[in-house]
Design brief:
Blueprint (H helix, E strand, L loop, with lengths): L1 H6 L1 E4 L9 E4 L10 H7 L11 H12 L8 E5 L5 H8 L4 E5 L3 H13 L5 E3 L13 E5 L5 H16 L3 E6 L10 E10 L9 E9 L2
Parallel strand pairs: 3-4, 3-6, 4-5, 6-7
Antiparallel strand pairs: 1-2, 7-9, 8-9
Helix pairs in contact: 3-4
């Protein structure tokens, strides 16, 4: 899949993360205009891994500006996609970074992006929802609350992790399914995204901490 990624992306820096390079989609590449049936025929799903989503950019920027949040700690980037947030955590001095995404193509993209930025990520494609592991102390969640089904699965797990003493940080442009209660906004950024997958090219994204 690495060849497919190279052929359909360009090495660029996200707007909020100029110190980072990623393989990101180009608007004129046909892969990103294909329907589900066409993608299935190629053996891939929707290529969420090819975009620097606004919430992830905001979360990555916050981590780089506040490295003490992750420095020396074990970190899980849940729904990592391109690995952008995980790479930010590694650059900020995290002791160990687990980058998790169930899409195997995302795993390839993450490895390529980690190599571009000369950082190491522990990449896993298992479904970790519901798992309470000692392998991470900080959980980073970028752009995950995009529909009700995933919100209903993820939020109770995050609350359980919080109750076990984990730090939970969420990056999101304020989508409808992001819960209103139990979150404390700690930062706000204007993050460039893509009109291919969003309804605008610029989103105001925030970083939230899951409260007690």
């Amino acid at each position: 899949m690495q060849q497919l990624i190279r052929e359909n992306t360009k090495i660029m820096s996200p707007r909020l993360l100029p110190e980072m390079k990623l393989h990101l989609a180009q608007d004129d590449v046909p892969l990103y205009r294909m329907g589900e049936d066409e993608l299935d025929a190629l053996g891939i799903g929707t290529p969420y891994w090819a975009f620097a989503w606004a919430g992830g950019q905001a979360l990555g920027r916050y981590i780089l500006d506040n490295p003490q949040v992750v420095r020396g700690r074990k970190v899980l980037d849940f729904g990592a996609g391109s690995g952008m947030v995980a790479i930010a955590a590694a650059m900020a001095g995290a002791f160990d970074v687990i980058a998790n995404d169930i899409d195997p193509v995302a795993a390839d993209a993450m490895q390529m992006n980690a190599d571009l930025n000369d950082v190491f990520l522990d990449i896993v494609t298992e479904d970790v929802i519901g798992r309470i592991s000692k392998d991470y102390e900080v959980i980073l969640v970028g752009d995950v609350f995009y529909d009700q089904q995933i919100a209903d699965l993820v939020l109770p797990w995050l609350k359980e992790l919080k109750a076990k003493g984990r730090e939970i940080l969420i990056g999101d442009p304020g989508r409808f399914y992001l819960p209103n209660m139990g979150l404390e906004r700690i930062a706000r950024y204007a993050g460039e995204t893509t009109g291919l997958m969003e309804d605008t090219d610029l989103r105001n994204a925030g970083v939230w901490r899951l409260a007690e």
